[in-house]
Amino acid sequence: MKACILEDNQKISYKEIETPQPKDNEVLIKVGACGICSSDFNRVYNNGAYFYPLVLGHEFSGEIVETGKNIDKEYLHKRAVIFPLLPCNDCEFCKEKSYAQCKNYSYFGSRCNGAMAEYISVPIWNIKVIPSDMRFDIAAMCEPTAVAIHAANKIQEYQNKKVCIIGTGIIGIIIGLIAKSRNAEVNFIIRNNQKEEFLKSLGFTSFGEQESDIVFECVGSNQSLEQCINTVKSKGQIVLVGNPYSDMTLPKKVYWKILRSEITINGVWNSSYKNQENDDWDNAIRFLYENQNQLSMLITDRFKLEDGIAAFNQMKNTDKLSIKGVFENEK
Ligand SMILES: [Zn+2]
Ligand SMILES: [Zn+2]
Question: How far is 34 from 327, CA to CA, in rounded Å?
């Protein structure tokens, strides 16, 4: 099969590698679409991979084209999305189904080969079957959508609350759509006018700093962390979602506000996949499926596997509006 392989820092090649064979409890997925995640940029440009060569890609969907020995043949030709984390199933957190906190996990596209390829073999435990008419590109957004749902669910009550979102990556935008669907007043803090136009096209109307009941930090910078604390009302809640670029430090005056205003700060990591009904992944599939037309607007860049590094360079170019880029395979 053909794959897009990170050979070394900033070096990606498109070449033939061996097609994986499903083990007894695995299914072979013909990848339909695989998203480019902001975490992939660190792997590609900043020596951020655990090892080379590595097939990137952890946000993907596809069709089941082969089943391992122990798998019901019913699964053949079903469409699926795949939870990219491979838990140890042995630690205390796995035992309580908090797999994102597993102490010894593997991960497609990071700690083992991922889905920027024609095929990938995955354990049946990791898949969720999706509707047969769900588009692969939309389904490839299931991972970031599940993360957004997980973050949004840290807050119990949205009705008539003022929600502020700092950051306009795909997760921030989806959190905004969820909060709006739960009847919150949603406001974005952004630094880029192109993004403002884009958010208006999604139906958002409020921008700039405003005192809010709930603030989501979706950037991961000191500046936006400070902005969160300065923006939130007394007794308000902050949800920290963005992966930090560097050490996070706070001036004493800002730190004081957390104490004086009794602010609640929630950390979130990944999503909650339990391989059972109504986990974050089921909710993400439903949300994407019901809003396919609107959410397809988030896919701003489409690539073929052979585009390789050019795809990453295009996504990195900040002159142009980019929300989500996906690699798509032939149907
Ligand atoms: Zn990701
Ligand atoms: Zn574990």
Answer: 5
pLDDT digits (tens, 9 = 90+) for 130-169: 999 999 999 999 999 999 999 999 999 999 999 999 999 9
Q: How far is the CA of 100 from the centre of ligand 2 (A)?
A: 9
| Residues, Cβ < 5 Å to ion ligand 1 | 37
In this prediction, residue 319 carries a pLDDT of 85
What is the domain partition of the chain in residue ranges?
Answer: 2-146+271-328, 155-267
Mean pLDDT of the chain: 96
CA of 92 to the centre of ligand 2 (A): 7
Q: Which CATH class is domain 2-146+271-328?
A: alpha beta
Residue 160 Cα to ligand 2 middle (Å): 39
Per the CATH hierarchy, to which homologous superfamily does domain 155-267 belong?
A: NAD(P)-binding Rossmann-like Domain (3.40.50.720)
Which H or E run includes 45? helix 38-45
3-state secondary structure (DSSP) of residue 198: helix
d(CA 124, CA 60): 15
Q: Whole-structure pTM over 0.90, yes or no?
A: yes
